[in-house]
# Entry
Amino acid sequence: MTETKRRNLETVPLDEVQGRHDSEALNLQGYDTVSLSNLSLPAFGQQSEAVREVDFDFLEAEQEGGNVPDEHFSEEPSVYRRFTGLLVRWIFRVPTPLRYFTHLTMFLVILGVLSASVIFLVDLSVHVLEVFRIWISSDNFGGYFVGFISYFLTALLLCLLSTFACQALGKEAEGSGIPQMKSILSGFYDRSKNSLKLRVLGAKSLGLICAIGGGLPVGWEGPNVHIACIISHQLSRLPFFRFIRRDKSLRLQMIGAACAVGLASSFGAPVGGVLYSLETTASFYIVRTFWKATAATVSGALIYKLLYDTPLVEAFQKTSFDIGVVDPTELVLFALLGILMGCAGSLFVYCVHQVYRIRMKKLPLTNRYILVGIVASVAAILQYPVELFRLDPRMAINELFSPETLRVLSPLQVFLLLVVKFPLVVVSVGLPIPAGVFVPSFLLGSCFGRLYGELLKLIFGDIIVPGGYAVVAAASFTTGVTRALSCAVIIFEVTGQLRHLVPTLVAVLFAFVTGNIFNRSLYDTLIIMKNIPYMPYMRKDRTPDMKVSQVMIRECISIQEYSNPGTLHEILQAYPEFSCFPVVNKDGYLLGAVKRRTLSTLVATQSPQLLMNSKLDMDYGDNEEFPASSGNMADDEEEEEDDSVHSSDTHPTASLNRNDSYVKTKDINESSSYSSPSLVEVPKDVSPLLVTEDTQLGRVHFMFVMLMPKCAYVVNGGKLTGVLTRLDIVECGQSTFTTN
Amino acid sequence: MTETKRRNLETVPLDEVQGRHDSEALNLQGYDTVSLSNLSLPAFGQQSEAVREVDFDFLEAEQEGGNVPDEHFSEEPSVYRRFTGLLVRWIFRVPTPLRYFTHLTMFLVILGVLSASVIFLVDLSVHVLEVFRIWISSDNFGGYFVGFISYFLTALLLCLLSTFACQALGKEAEGSGIPQMKSILSGFYDRSKNSLKLRVLGAKSLGLICAIGGGLPVGWEGPNVHIACIISHQLSRLPFFRFIRRDKSLRLQMIGAACAVGLASSFGAPVGGVLYSLETTASFYIVRTFWKATAATVSGALIYKLLYDTPLVEAFQKTSFDIGVVDPTELVLFALLGILMGCAGSLFVYCVHQVYRIRMKKLPLTNRYILVGIVASVAAILQYPVELFRLDPRMAINELFSPETLRVLSPLQVFLLLVVKFPLVVVSVGLPIPAGVFVPSFLLGSCFGRLYGELLKLIFGDIIVPGGYAVVAAASFTTGVTRALSCAVIIFEVTGQLRHLVPTLVAVLFAFVTGNIFNRSLYDTLIIMKNIPYMPYMRKDRTPDMKVSQVMIRECISIQEYSNPGTLHEILQAYPEFSCFPVVNKDGYLLGAVKRRTLSTLVATQSPQLLMNSKLDMDYGDNEEFPASSGNMADDEEEEEDDSVHSSDTHPTASLNRNDSYVKTKDINESSSYSSPSLVEVPKDVSPLLVTEDTQLGRVHFMFVMLMPKCAYVVNGGKLTGVLTRLDIVECGQSTFTTN
# Structure
């Protein structure tokens, strides 16, 4: 069928349908060139494989069982890999896709189990601290005042310890952690990957234990998400799971699954966790993540069930409302509650932003310890008088959710709780400590809802179940803050009931919509506040007609098709930041692109002296630091290279590297003509993303969002005229993005 | 900061960094050209707007409130639009984003309410038919035999009517409908949009009523999804909602939301429906769809609640199991059940495929009426003896799910139900009638699970609740068939219980994994069986090293930068299938692309005689039909054009069209020089997707999946060497895709 079409087209008699013969000639030429370069450089025999595997700039979607290069399983010469290889081969005796699948499943199960365990340990430590503080502030040691003093001092000590942990181990541990994960999921892995270091895990857990144990009203689900993501990242560094690390798409899917696990293990809500990780994703969700996230969260949920069935830690109680048919009138009340919660949620976000702004403006140099100390003192003073205020918020939430009348707290105390906690949470969220916002939101929402419900009960009588309103308000206030509809599902799973499904969903939707009218979600606000790189949807109405030519960097370093090795070497030395270079012919027409590594090998094979003298040549060219937007092109690549160097010491699986060295030793004798003016042909082993100058910026933005390349080359009539990086686009959009 | 960077780069002393001045010169030239074309052709004053709005090949992601061109709201000269405009402006008095949002929300609410109502009406009609048939086959009219005869005859009549409806009104109504929606969501809107016609809605509803009413064991959720999608599509054709139709991304999001509504309204499961629509999406899910789908399903769920609370129709009963802590041993039993259900599900898929294959091979010419008649007769004969077999499957499912011991059915009868229904369902699913598979799967799964549970109860005693196993098995068998994990959530919402959350999720995951080991999901199988265009993940291991140059069509029609209007006209006449043409300079370097409409206007303004003589010229050039892969480039565009012509009669909002005619009448007097040899410059108003020849096919496939363009131009060193369409890629992958 395609054959017929081609013939049909071939018999077209129009003059205008030309450029065909030219193009075919060019194609043949171009094709020969490629094979020539293959022949002349045996090191690139596996070039295409390598391109697919490591140097592929785009995020590649993978097919189950199809994507993994077989060599991960077939060539494992080290003792460890040989053992695991034999294990897999003997025990499982399955074809490659299934082996790949087995590895993946093992990763997911380990991720779920490990994350849930770590999260439980953190929770347990918090509980131990709380019990300890209750004990020392009890009447055993003296009166009310002595109790208060010991409560106050421990609070101060723990909170200072919390911020010290962040300062000493990793400042990336400060805050919720979800903004950083959003940044990574939107494609800024290379810019935000510092958040995934092991020491950040330590800082986050220790800081979180101390902060909550010290009585600050912060939540643990954001930090838990962060913890799970770090665990996922660190797991993927293990040699057994390196295939995950190498596949950019799979890596992102695993971060998505880890987000789900983190949230699911905080609440025992597997479905809600998966949905939440969907909503955390910036713009598009790879559907294949879904089952992976589910598998991981279910593993986590099993551990959660096992651990939280023990009476060690406070857990959410299951509710048992007997709401029958919901009256349409009551639905209106729920909708109204949703609107109120949406307003309250956006007020909360506004306050957090304002507090942060005032702090940055008025107290820019204030020591972190002074800040945390003051807030911790105020929190201790305010929370000490009523016992339920200073205990685990889950106890208060359980009380507020209960279908019966309030037992411990009076409505006045609920109101007090609301009034005391709201400003405290607002201030605490911005402090330099690990601080989540989900649980405090649940608490604030349920206070509000309980009051609303009690009020309605006074008006309408016993038909109203105030606890039900507390549940709905908890979900919808959290939605108002985070703009995540999955809060509804999380609350269903927390309470174990689905009877109030429709009212909750209605209220949550209204809160979502109302909140979005006023401002953006807390996480997006935090991203702006902390200048985390992020690629959101662009507001096209604000940059309506901008073209690529207005944003691109016109001065683009390019390499001639036939170049002198010396010149190539100079370029490599001068631009250590770039991981790949565009290749043009002598008229400036773009032919393709070449990887840095390929170029180095080329230089090494052609004139190895250059490489030896490279230390002496280092001062050539302006080596001053490039701005970040150029630098980010190299970051990821470099780490990949570092890794492969490390791994080739221990596990020489990277056949490319071995070939390189082989070529080096062999060709040194042949072409040892330093400063030979002979031109070598530069191979083109990367197929770059091309855009034309007239392309609308919105369109290029879309391409960057979807394909996640690091940069795109701009061509005009075939000639290379510029380059465009992710950050150029973000910067361009940021002027409008930051205006609230 | 960018400024500094540019200066840094400007002072680079290397010779290799050249092509900069060239490129800038070229850029200026190119830019002037564009503005020149703007000046010479006032019709293209709004060119950029038009490009963004209609002719943008890519799927564009939209920003809430940012995307809608304001003219939808500012220029509404017709009475209807003026009225609605005033209404919106006066009543709401809100800024544009909010107005856009209001429209969108109205659309979603109407979609939810309308779909749920239609689905309820279909269900009600089925119920009426069932009651009628029970009445006429009861003992009132004679004995058992007379009852059977009337049951048999009505079954035959209704089933034949069902297939007649499909034949007469639209063959697209046959089958589940979900495969077509998957095709549309994977980007083949233009190839599958026939399924969204209004007459298909009629065929689908009528056919469904008759098929289920006629006693065939088919489900209604697939057809319901299809119905909701048709409603969404038809709603978007209303002038008030045209902005949805114009935005490709929004259109897809609405199809996604409609899928969610269709499923949610079948079961009253809003969350499950949203999740299901996520899993129906081929490869990536636009996160913005999430709240839209939720809003629509919640509106639908409100209606569902309202309508199904009436005792008109059979509904799923809420269960109330008292499963406490799930024993780890029991969890193993659930996991085993999941594995069994996965095997059974994939067996089901295999049987459906084999039955279809045998039918196609052995009985290719068999009349559809004979086929349906035979199956209907067999079904009637087999199902008549036991009353519960021939009633609404929901009654049987409620019985099987019940926590108490079985009342109506004995275990033997459950076994019989399984044995009778399994082959019947397998055969019915492939018949030329509307046929879903969810509800029969629920039924088969719950039969199996109940038997499994009863068996376990015999072994382990009263600790086992067989109804719980029926619930879990229903979800996991359905997952085994559809490979959708959301079945778990749907079953939670159907039964209203979350207590068996973890066991269900575990079983469903095991079923998913087990099923995927054997074959692909029923819907993917149906897609292959019925040759529906679909763009799934490509199995990279099977086309590992293919390059674009091996697949592309080398003979690409291109237009010279400076062309004779006569030649342009000839090209337009010769290739009515193409919606845009690449523009090259005289050396064959690609400069950009031009829309067909722009070209026609250019020809019209330059030499209007050509247009008048066009009817005479029609026989010029080979006008034979092109294969589909070229044709699909024009389809969508043409419909868009048709629409705008229609709308400009009634609501002349398309300012471009008006300008066109203005230019036409004005310029006829000026440039009436037919066959003038003067060359005109072709404007380049489309920025095409460019790929290089060496690009790996997997990468281009990924670009097609993510960006959803219709075609990509292949360049080599700047020269246009070929074109690549969606279907070329799919065809290339299909040779491997169809092998099971």
Observations:
- Chain B touches chain A through 152 residues (CB under 8 Å).
- The longest strand of chain B covers residues 719-725.
- The domain at 330-529 of chain B is CATH 1.10.3080.10 (Clc chloride channel).
